[in-house]
Amino acid sequence: MTTTDPRAFVALDLGTSAAKAGVVALDGRLRGDARAPYPLLLDGEPGCAEQDPDAWWEALCHAAAIALAQAAADGPLEPVAICCVGQGPTLVPTAADGRAVGNAVTWLDRRSGAESAAVAAALGRHGWTVTLLGSARRLAAASPEVASRAAWFLSAWDHIGLRLTGVAAAALQDPADIISADDARLAGLDARSAPPGVRAGSVLGGLLARPAAELGLRAGLPVVAGVNDAIATFLGAGLTVAGQAIDTGGTSGGFGLYVATPVAIPPLWTGAAPLPGLSYVGGAMAGTGKALDWFVADALGGAALLTTLLAEATPVPAGSEGLVFLPYLAGERWPLHDPSARGAFVGLTLHHGRGHLARAVLEAAAYAIRHVAAPACRAGLPFTELRVTGGTAASRLWNGIKADVLNVEVAVPVVTEASLIGAAILAAAGVAVHPDLRAGIDAMVHVAERIAPDPAAVAAYDRVYSVYEELHARLAPANEALGTLDPRGMAAMSRAVATGARRLP
User: Residue 131 pLDDT more than 90?
Assistant: First the structure.
């Protein structure tokens, strides 16, 4: 395939802070892309974290219009399929016509813990689908007037799939995750939580006339079933063999490592990789991807440009001369599973300047990845390469810090918006433009740069990481004395999430 081929895929991604749209050529070139933000709604009861699905749709249409215009300016354009991936586990109460009847309950919401535990006990299983059922169970009890209007309880990407095609389905990359009608009843729910299962990457249906007009596409365009955006990112980053790992970037940040056979390594998550014969272990953080945005926009009040801060951080020695930052601005998920964890700068002296603080924030994101990866490394699993993705991957300084902190080669894809490339790979396989997902990866993912770790920096970071690893436990009593972290009190983090990720230069 060459870049003169007019055929392209329309890729959509519902992120936590913004919708992204991309037009991806058959060889993986990003012919056009755009993003449009939407707010996170935290004004309800404690633990509430919701979003308006109509705001999602408006953002998708806005971003798609810009991306399509860019692609058309690039040359002849023939969209051949569309695929939407998205955040999760996020629950959307959806009417039969694909419109939401209430707010989406996002993965950040903390109100359904008891219900999810009850569902897990009833079904004898865990996972993001169980979390969706827990959210549906809480919604049915707490907001029966909303639940009664829903024809389906869907994940974020399935909600968009229904709106695009009129087909209600649960799109999954692992068939073991499917929820049957019997499962729903055991969970105290009904068949609205058990739409028919379809394989991610299969054609869901044709694009309906109304959404086609709103998106600026032709009616009947094949709509390919999507998946969680983390799984799409695995594809778009080009992971194909055991030992390759990924930094998923984004609002929360996350780590995933491909393994040859399924393996249980508490407290890590284990699941089936999107490529046959592979599994992955890993976990997601809560806010490392937003920590730099918080530092620039909220802590410093926008007093310095991000480019200036990165320049000031570059000459600071590895380890920030004894300064350590804890990136727990929204609690922490893996490996701590502690929503009350707090962020902190530790080790400040009169010698430390703004560049030290900026570098400490960058280093903390790398420490957090290493913290998640540590159980897999202790288990002796191969770890040969880290693929970096998202806006943070545009910073060579940050990429180098990750190579040094994890002591592994970092590979930077040509297109770092890996969730969009992953959605395009799903679309390509779905309409057989590329014969399967692996062929799609081979054709559409390319590496721009590889960064080897610096032995001197590795040694320095090993010393600092041992301190980082202990700090949460040492500060926990003080955090407890200050009170449990309430999402309504996370004003700085909330503003950062609501306004969307800042792209690095």
Answer: yes
Q: What is the pTM of this model?
A: 0.91
Distance CA 464, CA 319 (A): 6
Q: Flag whether 459 is in a domain.
A: no
Domain assignment of residue 214, given as a range:
7-227
Residue 147: inside a domain: yes
The 8-class DSSP code of residue 298 comes to I
CATH number, domain at 328?
Answer: 3.30.420.40
Residue 497 has pLDDT above 60, yes or no: no
Burial of 145 (0-12, 13-18, 19+ CB in 10 A): exposed
Counts of helices then strands in the chain (DSSP H, E):
16, 21
Q: How far is CA 429 from the centre of its chain?
A: 22
Token pair listed for 482: 């200050």
Q: Is the pLDDT of residue 70 over 50?
A: yes
Domain count, the chain: 3
* Element at 196 (helix H, strand E): none
Residues 6+ apart with CB under 8 A from 124: none
Q: What is the pLDDT of residues 363-395, one digit of tens each?
A: 999 999 999 999 999 999 999 999 999 989 999
* Distances from the Cα of 138 to the Cα of 35, 38, 132, 328, angstroms: 32, 24, 10, 27
The domain boundary residue, chosen from 227, 258, 275: 227
Tell me the sheet residues that pair with 24. Answer: 9, 30
Other Cβ atoms closer than 10 A to 70: 17
Q: Which of 227, 246, 269 is the last residue of a domain?
A: 227
